[in-house]
């Protein structure tokens, strides 16, 4: 059996975990961290 699910968010595939216990498949896929942005002040000097 094969099933494909498209997730609405990016996940950390290297930290994913799948377990099968008592016939129940549990899959844990941690969300990827959002890209952090940083504002930088640009100083303008007139000549």
Automatic annotation (TrEMBL):
Pfam families: HSP20 (PF00011)
InterPro entries: A-crystallin/Hsp20_dom, HSP20-like_chaperone
Start and end residues of each SHSP domain: 1-45
Family: Belongs to the small heat shock protein (HSP20) family.
Protein's name in the database: SHSP domain-containing protein
Species the sequence originates in: Candidatus Wolfebacteria bacterium CG03_land_8_20_14_0_80_39_317
């Amino acid at each position: 059996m094969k099933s494909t699910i498209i997730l609405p968010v990016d996940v950390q595939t290297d930290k994913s975990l799948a377990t099968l216990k008592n016939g129940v498949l549990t899959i844990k896929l941690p969300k990827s961290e959002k890209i952090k942005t940083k504002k930088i002040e640009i100083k303008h000097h007139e000549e």
